Amino acid sequence: MFTWTDRELNQEQDEAVRFEGSQFLVACPGSGKTRTLTYKIAHELSRLTSARQFVVAITYTNRAADEIHDRIEALGVDTTQLWIGTIHAFCLEWILKPYGIYEPDLAGGYGILDLHEREKLLEELCEPYRAQRVTFWDCDYYVTRGGYFLGCSDAGKHRYIEAVLARYFQILSERKLIDFEMILKYADQLIQSQPSISQLLSNLFPIVLVDEYQDTKEIQYEILASILRAGAGATRLFMVGDPNQAIFGSLGGYAIDLGELTAKSGIPIEPRALSRNYRSSERIVEFFENFNVHGTTIIAAGKDRDFPSQITYNRRIDKADLADDIVRLIRRSVEEHGIRPDEICVVAPQWTHLSAMTRALIVRMPDSQFNGPGIVPFARDIENFWYKAARLALTEPSPQLYVRRLRWAGEVLAGLKEAGIDVSALSRKQLLREFNLIQVDDADGLNYLQAFFDEVFARLAIPYCAFDGLMSAHDDFFDASRARIQRLRNDGVEGIGELAFFKRAFQPRAGITVSTIHGVKGAEFDVVIGYALLEGMVPHFNDADGESSARKLLYVVGSRARKHLYLFSEGGRARGTRDVYRPTRALIACEFDYDPS
Ligand SMILES: Nc1ncnc2c1ncn2[C@@H]1O[C@H](COP(=O)(O)OP(=O)(O)OP(=O)(O)O)[C@@H](O)[C@H]1O
């Protein structure tokens, strides 16, 4: 039986892990959501009584799934009966793959549209609307039971985007492809048309855990609720998140309330809270509490609780001087405050500002390393076999990565088996050993991977070229990676094709992070520097619920910091031809005793 001490979990966490029924856990920032989820999964795994059942955990990203998986294995718990991944992976694995034949659109076979193929296709389809400034970025949409909605907040562009999407859906249907939203749409249709699916799944899952519920979409809630309803209490729910951090509203995410959740799922669910913040100083907590829209209780309880934090807010600075001032703050943090560069994060609301800022910082601090926006040079389609193999080829053997790499080796073996290759004589350990033996001397990332794959599969006597499925995945992976590298080069990211950039994707965070506010979700840093906190950006100018969105974004920015927080609403950013952006209203309205900047 899996056990723990009171040094590992506090009382609230311990109660949530032990509680037998369904729970709805509202967790304040830094309250150990991930730790609680990890222990809960480990506890449930150790209590399973049937070898046919699975503990299912839904995470927001694949990275989070990997992280939690590693932590459970580090607790010494067998994860054979754990299924963990994103809701898309869940729908594919448990609904579309086994039951897709019951859906007329899928019955003749289907492929998943790679994210980069999607980008390429949408870019082509947007070409005729160049004058209307419709780009690939405007084409995000999300499905609900009532139809699809556009993510683009500029209503003036909607009719053009709809025309683009109509053609897009037609092409996908002709090519028998589905994208990520369609995975959800078809999973939900199947769940509705074949009630036995929910019944079967509820028999298999004694518990379903959901992380970051505040960013879950309606259709995802519906799919999960169908399974819970079918189980009538036999499948329990453990849902955790923070409604104050619900910042994916434009993509359909929302923080459900307990009443709606209970009504949808038809099972009793107990509300709970995690209120002790182990991350930030009391002063930081005092600051971000100003943006608390849900009345959540937050108690600073960590080792940095009494840290003398500096919190500044500069709205006099001009855009032209911003990079210099950010460099000054970074230097002061490193040189005077002794903070490591990888504990510093620069955030802004939009990518567009970040590429320019990253370049400006690199020029001013050539000896520092920056993790800029989107700097992963290869296609990250986790379903693609070659992506799975690349993870092993791009990481070195190390004790810290051993468990994770062994799991990845298992996924490569499963991919080979699925392609029709007999791998029964090969264990995960043997496969990993073969990968570890390969030495390739090529500084170009894609050439390195190609040579690596050729060599390792030659050693394994697996002629992958003879297998259609592997070859088409191979073309997808390499074409998408080349396109991605080209796009990043066009954006001025130099050296992006080099092996070092490829390897960095799997290394622990190194250097100063530069990210969007959405991209720092779940992360923590000693120092957070936020800029472009301007009305029209925070919140976005067309956000229907602007005031509340601005508060949530500011809450997320503030709550990432352990020690120091430096904020800017810089002047001089042109808005149209005659105006400039003004500071975020919600920030101006906040009365706080800032330190001098
Ligand atoms: N019981 C505990 N005692 C001491 N430290 C803890 C405890 N629980 C969690 N922590 C620490 O608190 C920090 C925050 O935890 P975690 O990242 O899980 O927070 P979170 O709730 O997911 O935050 P957010 O919602 O802001 O992303 C981590 O450094 C973690 O190790």
UniProtKB/TrEMBL annotation:
<dbReference type="InterPro" id="IPR013986">
    <property type="entry name" value="DExx_box_DNA_helicase_dom_sf"/>
</dbReference>
<dbReference type="InterPro" id="IPR014016">
    <property type="entry name" value="UvrD-like_ATP-bd"/>
</dbReference>
<keyword id="KW-0413">Isomerase</keyword>
<keyword id="KW-0238">DNA-binding</keyword>
<feature type="binding site">
    <location>
        <begin position="27"/>
        <end position="34"/>
    </location>
    <ligand>
        <name>ATP</name>
    </ligand>
</feature>
<dbReference type="InterPro" id="IPR014017">
    <property type="entry name" value="DNA_helicase_UvrD-like_C"/>
</dbReference>
<dbReference type="GO" id="GO:0004386">
    <property type="term" value="F:helicase activity"/>
</dbReference>
<dbReference type="InterPro" id="IPR027417">
    <property type="entry name" value="P-loop_NTPase"/>
</dbReference>
<dbReference type="InterPro" id="IPR000212">
    <property type="entry name" value="DNA_helicase_UvrD/REP"/>
</dbReference>
<feature type="domain" description="UvrD-like helicase ATP-binding">
    <location>
        <begin position="6"/>
        <end position="281"/>
    </location>
</feature>
<keyword id="KW-0378">Hydrolase</keyword>
<keyword id="KW-0347">Helicase</keyword>
<protein>
    <recommendedName>
        <fullName>DNA 3'-5' helicase</fullName>
        <ecNumber>5.6.2.4</ecNumber>
    </recommendedName>
</protein>
<keyword id="KW-0547">Nucleotide-binding</keyword>
<comment type="similarity">
    <text>Belongs to the helicase family. UvrD subfamily.</text>
</comment>
<dbReference type="Pfam" id="PF13361">
    <property type="entry name" value="UvrD_C"/>
</dbReference>
<dbReference type="Pfam" id="PF00580">
    <property type="entry name" value="UvrD-helicase"/>
</dbReference>
<keyword id="KW-0067">ATP-binding</keyword>
